[in-house]
Amino acid sequence: MTAVHVLGMLPEALVFAGALMVLIVGSYLPRRRLWWTRVIAVAALIGALIAGAVQMAGSDSSTFAGTFVVDSVTGVARVITPLATVLVILVAGEEISGSARESESYALLLSATAGVLVLSGAQDLLVLAVGYLLASIPIYALIGMARSPAAAEAAMKTYLLGALSGILLLLGVTLLFGGTGTTAYGELRGLLAEIPAPIVVAGSVGVVAGLLFKAGGVPLHFWVPDAAQGAQGFVAMFVTTVPKIGALIALYRLVEILPGGLAWPGLIGGIAVASMTLGNLAAFWQDDPRRLLGWSTVSQVGFLLVPVAAAGRSDLALPALLFYLAGYTVTNIAAFAVTTAVPAARELSAYRGIGRTQPWLTGALIVALLGLLGTPPLALFVGKLTTASAAWEAGAAWLAIAVFVNTLLSLVYYLRWIVPCLQTSTGVEHSAPQHVSVRVAAAAAGVSVALGVAAGLVFGVVG
Amino acid sequence: MLSLLVFLPLAAAAVLVAAPRITDAAARWLWVVVAAAEVILTVGIWATYTAPKPGELAFDEQVPWIPGVNSSYHVGVDGLSLPLVIMTAVVFLACAVYSLRGSERSRAQAALFLFLQCVSIGLFVAADLILFFVFFDLSIVAMYFVITGWGHGQAGRSAMKFFLYTFLGSLALLVGFIGLYIAAQPHTFDMVELTAATPLAGSSVTGGLVLGAILLGLAVKTPTFPFHTWLPSAHTDAPAIGSAVLAGVLLKMGTYGFVRIAMPMLPQSWRSWAWVIVAVGIVSVLYGALVALAQKNLKRMIAYTSVNHMGYIVMALGAAGLIAGSTAEARSIAVTGAVTQMVSHGLITGALFLIAGVLYDRAGTYELDAYGGLAGAAPKLATLFAVGAFASLGLPGFSGFIAEFQMFTGSIAAAPVTAVALPGIVITAALFLRAFQQVFTGPAGGRSVGFVDLRAHETVPTATLLVLSVVIGVLPAPLLALIEPAAATVIGLLGR
After folding, report:
1. What is the value of ipTM here, to two decimals?
2. Among A342, A429, B317, B343, which is least packed by CB within 10 angstroms?
3. What is the pLDDT of residue A430?
4. Distance from CA of B433 to the nearest CA of A (A)
């Protein structure tokens, strides 16, 4: 366990090296050749993806003195995360191609991705803190990059909330370390049961708060709708999708080592219900599609927290979480890619009549929204099904029922978006959509269908 | 064989979507050809069908789908599902022929209906709860797009109401399914295994709650009183063929769920709740009939008679759960009647909605008092409407009589109190006669002037559906021979 397999963190290293490379190369290239940095970024991510997939095929191992684990969970994160970032970069390439901040944006995306990967494999509270910072700081900059008042406000909000929750996280780590004298999960697992419960509770609540900020869950969700609305399209896509992967996996791993006897399943379950309900209710009357999606992601975090609440008490919890994460990632990317395909449409009514002029884009949007809703046979249906089953199996049938009540609530606002698309046009000419975004949307929607239909195969990998 | 039956329409729909070069006319003919092929396939299945042993299915096919939760692609038919599969194929063919003269965006419409046919047949042959749910939910989505895309009046509003309401039902259903899954050891979604295991036999509280969730889901879809409020508006604003499929096929998904899932998998709970179910059925019968009597809009009227007709089924199935003395045979007759009623209602109401569609197509309104003396201008329409109305009110010689006779025989034998539902038949008779008089007899007036009678593409499907109803009414033996063993099996399962 003490051996240092440097290669164990090859995907993380590749992504981070890619970030540095993009930064350096980008500062020497003229603007019209900045697309080279995009190539480098995508190459680094694909390299990480391949390395991660190869390591997943091997046996579980840990590295850096047991502080980072390479198991099937890390493996899944290493496949989804780079893939998601590649899609984000494709959309970004269209949105900011040739702009002054192109290469910096890619560099920030890559370092945040590296942070997410570190988070998902962390087996030590300090590594967790490093991952948290690496994933958070680039995001503040990315959100502010749009240079609009809305973006500035969103960046400020994100920064303040992020700083607060970062402090809470570090405080929690300090408390747990102070109580047990260790930060390694392997040792904490046994020691946490022996120290006074208040220290465990205060410490773990602090860490959970930090991770909730990353995931964008209630009560640290305030930055999400603002960021989704104010930031550039690809940034909105990234911050509402990728950090959740690392944060929720880290949360799951943390909850797993907490001693039994504490009421943490109830706490996580309560946060889950609050997140889905608040996200849904707030999304009801949004008129800006991206803000609507922002609130919808808050509610999705609620669904994602359900298997975390069932951790350790149901064999289905972990595969359900991973499957939901994979399905959520592609579906949410598809939905955001539709908004970047028609960047001028910033009201739901602007989608009126788009069904006739843009059948593929509309198809992708309908698949994405019905997918987020959890309609069979799309990916998130299987996600919601297994999630609710896991909760019920863990003895929390109320949580399963909350999932379905909230699913019904969410139908209202997803339909509010679908309806104008199918109405006849008011005669307003739609400008030609952004081609890359349309393709990303269609491809992601296609993957969401495939994930649902071929759920058995995927479950074989994550389960 | 069954997979071909399920996925052939889906493949055709995919072709229609993927090839924008296909003209609308070609799309309509492709639709008819595929729908006809489906009818031939179902007849072929019927010809080679032999009743499976209890606890098994004919034409069984099983492929693992999501092994993590023990869900598989499992399909098969028995005497409960095969009649509905055949009826579904016939109703969809009728709709395809009816649409031959075309409406706007025929290619998309054909693709959507072929998709709807895939999920409808898929639902009736599904032998896995998740597969069943997938088709159940997709039928809602497809019907939503049918109403918004081709409806009239306040189509958007009605479609939204329909979606919200039935989606609530489907989620309740899913909660119930998960309850069954968790209770079963080992956990499974397979219907055959769950039927054999009756997982919640020992716990009446959980069993009652799970049954409650499943009943809620199915009751919304059926719909029974008090969950029927989505139905009239959805029907009124849907296009004619949409209404025909909604009433003919989609409503059956609810009642089919009772006999396929609720009764065999939760027999103890069903028996405990039988009186409640009987009561809901009786109220639906009487309430549906009375409200239908008060309607001035033809389509709303037919929609409420559906609540009435579905009420008989719910009443009969509830009565089947009232175990007392030596009533097993009577209760088996009630179940047979219920399944016969599902087929019969599909054919008759499908035809009536197609006729109502003709009225709207020519005159733009469903209001009964907008017409008068229409029999003079449109004798064929008048004849077919009269036949449909008599069939619907359960006159001997039509399938409705066979079904209602059996349901009442069985129910009254098991619980004499169900006789209070008999006035439902009288009220239905009254309202159909009144509607007929108002629209077709008397001096020609209002929108009847210049009314063009039925054209061939409208006559053929409507007449075919009604002829089939007469065939069942006169020669019920082949159909009953198909249903009776399965009904007896259900009664056997309920007795555990």
Report:
1. 0.86
2. A429
3. 64
4. 39
